Amino acid sequence: MAGGGKRKEVKKETGLGLSFKKEENFGEWYSEVVVNGEMIEYYDISGCYILRPWSMSIWEIMQAFFDAEIKKMKIKNCYFPLFVSSSVLEKEKDHIEGFAPEVAWVTKSGKSDLEIPIAIRPTSETVMYPYFSKWIRGHRDLPLKLNQWCNVVRWEFSNPTPFIRSREFLWQEGHTAFATKAEADEEVLQILELYRRIYEEFLAIPVVKGRKSEMEKFAGGLYTTSVEAFIPNTGRGIQGATSHCLGQNFAKMFEINFENEKGEKGMVWQNSWAYSTRTIGVMVMVHGDDKGLVLPPKVASVQVIVVPVPYKDANTQGIFDACTETVDTLCKAGIRAEADFRDNYSPGWKYSHWEMKGVPLRIEIGPKDLANNQVRAVRRDNAAKEDISRVNLVEQVKRILDDIHQSLFDAAKQKRDACIQVVKTWDEFKEALSQRKMILAPWCDEEEVEQDVKERTRGEMGAAKSLCTPFDQPELPEGTKCFASGKPAKKWTYWGRSY
């Protein structure tokens, strides 16, 4: 992208657009949107990306919300090292088998080989739990509830995609230990609800809450719950965030024991849960359009951009003053607003620029607006224009921003719901899969049947798998058969291709 800034100056107003359309070439469109929208910059190590301020600010807004919520739950932040010794990492067999292909190893220091290679954390269960066993002795040490905001490394070789699949990403990971299973079960769902709120209340993306199959659950855990999103354009589900009950498996491996009130020995029950910068990629994929990013107002670092539109003989200073005043008024009311006073760009170029960056609302002020003590408000999501009086500016802008959030959510839900198909048979399933649907099917809940579905659907697009069994279960009539095996069905499960 060298010399990008230079080239832009001579670009005509129309020269700012994207070269790919979302409907026609989704992958290229996505890459172009995240770069041109100034979310990321490509880095010289494949699968690693620079998060620019425009995306980092979105992460910080979600972080502020989530951090405050978990503190209300008496969860405390901490920080553990990035490095893991191989002996500890390999302690829980299923767990390390789940992560082995993605673990990055440090083997050298300067020119000399390390005697024992050191792993970089792909997740921190094995980093933290040896110390849980040290800190937890009796029932008074429980519950132990920790969280860390950090980076993890998973050395993916298939198809890296900014935000969605990168070799290093940012996340929070919560790790908690309880005396009873009931307490662990309760927390799993409390955290899952916070993840739903991040997607629905902040990112305006509808998600399904549910439980993962045995095959898709967290390696080494007892059960996994998740919020699942869907990308209509690619017909792929995407795991939005996960909340795992680890049971007592890790407690056994790492000897995390405690003595209860009666002096009896017991093993703790544990959870781990995480959401990552992947959330930002899902937001771009769901809401973005052929003009670029579309940011939901709650997470946009600039919610309102104010653009002066002076004509040749206009009272330019008056227009500029009105812009400054508008920004001040909005900022005082807690709305994130900025003005674009750059004089080397035309208003039309600025419109395209801020549209590409996804700013929810644009306010234009020209001579006519100045004369009428009004501003023109233009929405990013549907391009609707509205003249609003400067007298009750704040109330009007708040109303429009709320409406944008609701409209984005409703449009995303409508598009997703149109992709959901209920099937009963294998033929219907194959047909729905070829039409890129999110498929709800009755299932016998047997692991080899899911394995078989994967094998039978392997192809250029990638195999289908179970996405989740929704908590919100439709009625399952007596005698319903599994779509894949013909055995008696036990539950309704979502299936599809996924990221």
TrEMBL record:
GO terms for molecular function: ATP binding; proline-tRNA ligase activity. The keyword ATP-binding applies. One of its GO terms (cellular component) is cytoplasm. Residues 58-296 form the Aminoacyl-transfer RNA synthetases class-II family profile domain. Its EC number is 6.1.1.15. InterPro entries: aa-tRNA-synt_IIb (IPR002314), aa-tRNA-synth_II (IPR006195), aa-tRNA-synth_II/BPL/LPL (IPR045864), Anticodon-bd (IPR004154), Anticodon-bd_dom_sf (IPR036621), Pro-tRNA-ligase_IIa (IPR002316), Pro-tRNA-ligase_IIa_arc-type (IPR004499), Pro-tRNA_ligase_II_C (IPR016061). Gene3D superfamilies: Anticodon-binding domain, Bira Bifunctional Protein, Domain 2, C-terminal domain of ProRS. This is proline--tRNA ligase. It comes from Manihot esculenta.
